[in-house]
Amino acid sequence: MALMIPPVKLKWLEHLNSSWITEDSESIATRDGVSVLYSKLLANKEVVLLPQQVLCLKGPQLPDFERESLSSDEQEHYLDALLSSQLALAKMVCSDSPFAAALRKRVLVLQRIFYALSNKYHDKGKVKQQQHSPESNSGSSDLHSVSERPRSSTDALIEMGVRTGLSLLFALLRQSWMMPPPPGPGGGPGGSINLCNDVIHTAIDVVSSLPPLSLANESKIPPMGLDCLAQVTTFLKGVTMPNSGADILGRRLASELLLGLASQRGSLRYLLEWIEMALAAAAVVSTMEQNKVLLSQEGLIGYDCFMNILIQMRRSLGSTADRSQWREPTRTPDGLCSLYEAALCLFEE
């Protein structure tokens, strides 16, 4: 027998955990507070109402009064059937009461808050504890982590291959940027720099093709993956500086890739790190301008790339503001914008 309250489907969104942690849990003591938080669940589609099933109100099949007398076992069977039917009807009536509906909403809201707290401070804390253990206790922490999750030889080989592969890639990119380009077939510059930029451009295409906030839940990313992200981020930060040795396009692509990774990770920390990088690069550009050694198109980022990420962030937060009210950086005729203005826009956001 189906209940009068429609059934629901729960689908918690990982990138909303931080907002649920900040909710006032004491507001669920009142029905108005519960209604507001439950409406938030419905608006974010974390609770989806399912179609109401058809109620089955038909009672037990009882014998006609003209039949012969029933045995004691048959009488007991029909009596149990009547009691079960009445109990089911009583459950349906009670569950359809305003008190039951408010209680059910309160339980769903509490379940969402507890899930956010558990995911933010318990599951994620275990991962961070394994990654950022103090150097003085590195030996004991390594033994503890090994005892919890034994690493197979295959895992060790994969980790070694990934680490050495990243180190080799970074070294080759630095070396190719530092070395003068070989002459091309017609006496012009060769394609070593273009090859390096193609590598970063391919990474940008991969990050752009990912669904929003694909890297937001770090508790589900293995430690090796987080370590690779940290290495890539550190390398790209060095590349974005005007004195890094990379060409102008390479520095611009590195800043765009860094911004894409920061937006996919969905944390204020990584967005602030990108702002810090952009302001540092802008400061170097300002110094070069004073010394009159500035090259053309220095300290810029692609306008469309920056605005696409900014719009994606607004959509992820459910912003309905008019675009005419948004703060946007100044677009150059070449389709670029200043890193300094982009950092200010992102910081204001």
Automatic annotation (TrEMBL):
It comes from Goodea atripinnis. Coiled coil: none annotated. It comes from the Eukaryota. Keywords: Repeat. Residues 125-150 are annotated as: Disordered. The gene is HERC1_1. InterPro entries: Signaling_Regulatory_Domain. This is E3 ubiquitin-protein ligase herc1. Residues 130-144 have a biased composition (Polar residues).
